[in-house]
Amino acid sequence: MVVPVPTSEPTPPRWRLRGATRMSSDELRREAARLATDPLVLQLLVARGIATDEAVARAVAPRLKDLRPPSSMAGFDAALDLLEWAHARRVRVGVFGDYDVDGVTTAAILSGYLEALGLQVVVRVAHRDGGYGLTLADADAFASAGTALVLTGDTGTSDVEALARLREHGIRTVVIDHHQVPEVMPPADALINPHRRDCAFPFKGLCSAGVAFYLCAALRSRLAARGDVPDPREWLDLVALATICDMMPLVEENRVLVHRGLERLATSPRPGVRALLDRAGVGADELVDETHVGFRLGPRLNAPGRLGSAEPALRLLRARTAAEALPLAEHVEALNVQRRLASERCVAEALALVEADPVQRDRAALVVAHEGWRAGIVGLAAATLCEHHRKPAMVLAVDPATGLARGSIRSWGGIDVRAALLACRDLVERCGGHREAAGVSVAQARIPELAEAFAAACGSQTNAGTEVDEVIDGELPLPRLDEALVRRIRSLAPFGTGFPAPRWLGHAKVETVRVHKDRHVGLRLRQDGAVIEAIAFDQVRDGAGFVPGLGAELAFVFAPTLDAWRGETRVRAVIERMWAPSSESR
């Protein structure tokens, strides 16, 4: 057994209970009995703002019939009319998707469904080197291919020049997107985007794949009287992939779509997804959940688009047989290895740049730039900087040939990074994104100005520049942890953005400790006679990090999971933070 030498202990975090109000134990039992659910399940739902009878029922058992009709989406009827026209005339349709998971899955959903209807479809996806979105070259390629209608997925709202070029070619266009809508509407025949000011659809958290599913379902309803039409539910697995990987809120419509999509992934995964799961080490008998999607499938499907063209990911998702999917999955896996090596180097260099700059560390947000990084990798580095320094981070890849830097921003602590970026828009060439993540292009010479202005904009938001509280669901003694309890917690899955996984405060004594792969700390913990295995991922980096000593008392924030080990199921604690309990804070 390898017992590492403990390093300096981290400062105990401030923490608070999730939810503004809490029910007493008696109230929970009474309400749970009335609603025919478990008290622990109800406690977790109430803490997440789900308290009405109807909301509880939908959260516990999401159903497709709970989806609200899309007729109030601005642009929806116009898009549906164009698709019905294309089907009646049997015209050739172009489909274009952006280079991330949402763009690729949207392209796969639309092309797959339209082909199932008997239409000829020309599919293209973005290339990282071509820049963001639909380009003039893409527009000309669709014209050369003889398309009469082009649909864009996860892009198009800001692609004014390319859409105008398609109009010059006499090609009609439908934009399916969920990015912020500019003041001037794009020159499209139909724009479906939940963020349109005139969109009355009540849920704004759909990704493009979710909108595409709605469109296919509505088209099926229109065509149903004309004969047998394909069922769009066959593409719900791709909707789940996009929604999870694009970090959309897992509430309301998304909760239903992802729940049903994960069921499809678990029972009848398409050949490309199954082949990629095999490459990721997920066995055929392993239940595929949101963790597998977010941490195994997502990075691999994103890898081609991060390094260049997203075409390999699209071809994999569109593969019809296992024989066709196998070499495609191997190619995507090879690209993922390249992506991982490049991102590890970028992360290490970004962390070093911050450590070498005390001015950066004192600001409310971090901004680092380097000439040797790939633009498709910097988002991963930004996420790591956020987690490491617990503040928003912008990471920029500089192209010395053009004098431009392209980068990604990730949020921390509820700070709206898109709003902060818009406050600096006079300094940038282009920007866009969401509250939690954004993208930016900036002239290299203006990076110092942008770094100062962006940090100031983040600092002006009320919770910036302060230590963010750990939000937990309560204290959970280890003797209470058993398989039945973890399964009750897991009954509320999927967890993710907007519906966070339960996190608990724990206390225990360290019985054994081991560092795996110089990164992860494995522990055996004991409390009042109960013993449990635990793992703290990525706790050690470059020999630094907190590693508790044998026999030490330990406090920690953790999530309980079930782990298959030598044919048996066991409970394991995944530790997010740990510290010595002698000076805990609340």
Structure write-up:
With 586 residues, this protein is of the alpha/beta class. The protein has four domains: 1-18 and 473-586, OB fold (Dihydrolipoamide Acetyltransferase, E2P) (Beta Barrel), CATH 2.40.50; 21-46; 73-226, Alpha-Beta Complex (inorganic pyrophosphatase (n-terminal core)); 357-459, Roll (Diaminopimelate Epimerase, Chain A, domain 1), CATH 3.10.310.30. It contains 19 helices and 17 strands. It has helices at residues 25-35, 39-47, 53-60, 76-89, 101-116, 136-144, 160-168, 208-223, 236-245, 252-267, 271-279, 290-307, 311-317, 322-355, 358-362, 378-389, 417-422, 447-459, 483-490; strands spanning 15-17, 93-97, 121-125, 149-153, 172-176, 190-192, 366-370, 393-399, 404-410, 430-433, 437-443, 470-472, 504-516, 520-527, 530-536, 553-565, 568-579. The strands form four sheets. A five-stranded parallel β-sheet has the order 3-2-4-5-6, sandwiched between helices. It has a five-stranded mixed β-sheet with strand order 7-8-9-11-10, sandwiched between helices. The chain has a five-stranded mixed β-barrel with strand order 13-14-15-17-16. Strand 8 and strand 9 (404-410) form a beta hairpin. Helix 4 (76-89) crosses helix 8 and helix 5 (101-116) packs across helix 13 (311-317). The longest helix has 34 residues, at 322-355. The chain starts with 14 loop residues before the first strand and ends in a 7-residue tail after the last strand. Residues 1-6 have low confidence and may be disordered.
